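Quick note —
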Amino acid sequence: MSLVSEGADVSSTLAEPSLATAGDYFALLKPRVMSLVVFTALVGLAVAPGSLHPVTAFTALLCIAVGAGASGALNMWYDADVDALMTRTARRPVPAGRVQPGEALAFGLTLSGFSVVTLGLLVNVTAAALLGFTIFFYAVVYTMWLKRSTPQNIVIGGAAGAFPPMIGWAAVTGSLSLEPIVLFLIIFFWTPPHFWALALYKRDDYARAGIPMLPVVAGDASTRRQILLYTLILVPLGIAPWPLGYAGMLYGAVSVVTGAIMLVLAWQVLREQRPADRASRNLFAFSILYLFLLFATLLVERGWGGLLARLTA
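Predicted structure written out below.
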């Protein structure tokens, strides 16, 4: 597969440095996405059994953050042509002309190599391999292939955003088990209703850019049904750590209540008619809070005390 963006002439832009600011390069890292990645990785690290030196724990989280940022930079490099056509993304550094495509590519590749190698040398090879695979999956499998070729892009590509808890767990244990896989599945099945809710009220943007998101290809009605279907799978998975013994009553209560709200909002999306899109916006906004509350509760209940004990031992 070619590593040359359809909208980027790398050879010419490498020779013409931009006047980008530090803020522009920071924007290439997709800091909002990076913050979610770091948070879910922290939960995976905190709930994992075993011990980890404070410096090693910080190094692991830093490498995961840098790797997530590298993925974002590579995504923005390759997608500069379609980003320029969408109101939501047109002001990103590359399509806006503040960062040249070749610079974004070099930035992303450098950060990718640094994060994976450092994690492997200073933490362990298993975590580094998972991080490397995550960057590859997001930048190549999702961005270069799935995003422009199938309406299932978010479903399959969502795996990239679900790996961080597994990487955090592996950083401590050097292996994987059922518990981080459950956390992976929660994020994996959360991703489609989250992004399809966004796609419902941004359908015109995706259509203009030629991105085959589900509302563009299959229509609103099919998308709304799929959102409800995935939410019906997500909610029991969100509750699962409680009956499996990975979490206690607090997590159980939070997961049941927030899961019920997710189901109500997904049902409202199913019943919603264009052009209001209010229910879609509500589901998109609450889905972020839902995932945060699940992982924050797990961190407080299962991981925070153990993490503090590890770091002060």
